[in-house]
């Protein structure tokens, strides 16, 4: 007779998926810590500079509805739900999504947290996050300074 089931999963506490196979959760390697931290910091800086740019460029009364529309479109075409490499069969969409900063954030996190899945090369997303932060930061600070002076 087998061991009784407990609350943590199957017999004797083994965690099994519904199909009878052991559930496997991908984990980030500790050696990826510096790369993950760099990606998180660059992603936060890029998102904040983008927010500052949008906040200084869009009228406050139109910001709410426009933000909802922008976030929905950015999320669907931001490689959040699928890897960027999965778009290869539809090449024009793959190239078009490169204009979306969320692609580089998603791909950087995917590369660090689930390295076995398909993702953009490390040099590509780190370069895009760095240059995107610098470019958007420059534009955002110029607009902000102009807005404060008037």
What does this entry look like structurally?
59% of the residues lie in helices and 0% in strands. The protein has 150 residues and is mainly α. Helix 1 (33-57) packs parallel to helix 5. The chain starts with 32 loop residues before the first helix and ends with a helix.
Helices and strands, with pairings:
Elements: H1 33-57, H2 60-76, H3 91-96, H4 101-113, H5 122-149
Helix pairs in contact: 1-4, 1-5, 4-5
User: What fraction of residues sit in β-strands?
Assistant: under 5%
Instruction: Please summarize the sheet with the most strands.
Output: none
Order of helices and strands: HHHHH
The dominant shape is globular
- Low-pLDDT runs of 5+ residues are 1-20
Helix content: 55-70%
Roughly how many Å apart are the termini?
Answer: 81 Å
Mean pLDDT: 81
Number of strands: 0
Radius of gyration: 21 Å
H/I helix tally? 5
Characteristics:
5 helices; disordered N terminus; mainly alpha
Quick rundown:
With 150 residues, this protein is mainly alpha-helical. It has helices at residues 33-57, 60-76, 91-96, 101-113, 122-149.
